[in-house]
Amino acid sequence: MHFHDGKPYFQHNAVIGGGYVTCSTRPEVFHISLTVQHRARGGSWQVRGAEASDQTPDPRLNIATYAPCQPGAWRVVATISDNHAIGSYSDSSTEAIISC
């Protein structure tokens, strides 16, 4: 199983982040939590938008979320759990500096 993400991007006064999950063997139990996170200069990462799904990738699942734009650094974080070998893991995108 793998999460393929893109960098967060600005569109229509919002920061959008998303990606898709692929798996070669369909899990019986699956959950993904996707967040778009913002960090102001000198601050810490804060969740600004979130989406979750229990839909099983067969063989692919698309997911996205968004937040109102604020200038600063943004990233997408996916946390995935299933009933196969990986158990649970998190994956973060590359940061994007966005000016609204």
Describe the overall structure:
With 100 residues, the protein is mainly beta. The chain has a single domain, classed as Immunoglobulin-like (Sandwich). It has strands at 2-5, 9-11, 14-22, 30-39, 46-53, 60-68, 72-82, 88-92, 96-98. The strands form two sheets. Strands 4, 5, 7, 8 and 9 form a five-stranded antiparallel beta sheet that branches. Strands 1, 2, 3 and 6 form a four-stranded antiparallel beta sheet that branches.
Low-confidence stretches: none
Count of runs of 4 or more consecutive helical residues = 0
Beta strand count: 9
- Percent in helix: under 10%
Gross morphology: elongated
pLDDT average, as an integer?
88
What would you call the structural class? mainly beta
CATH class: Mainly Beta
Order of helices and strands: EEEEEEEEE
* Rounded Rg: 14 Å
Assess the beta-strand content as a share of residues.
Answer: over 45%
Here the CATH topology equals Immunoglobulin-like
Number of individual domains: 1
Largest sheet: 5 strands, antiparallel
Layout of strands and helices, then pairs:
Blueprint: E1 2-5, E2 9-11, E3 14-22, E4 30-39, E5 46-53, E6 60-68, E7 72-82, E8 88-92, E9 96-98
Antiparallel strand pairs: 1-3, 2-3, 3-6, 4-5, 4-7, 7-8, 7-9
Can you summarize this structure?
The protein is mainly β and 100 residues long.
Keywords:
9 strands; Immunoglobulin-like; 100 residues; four-stranded antiparallel β-sheet; single chain
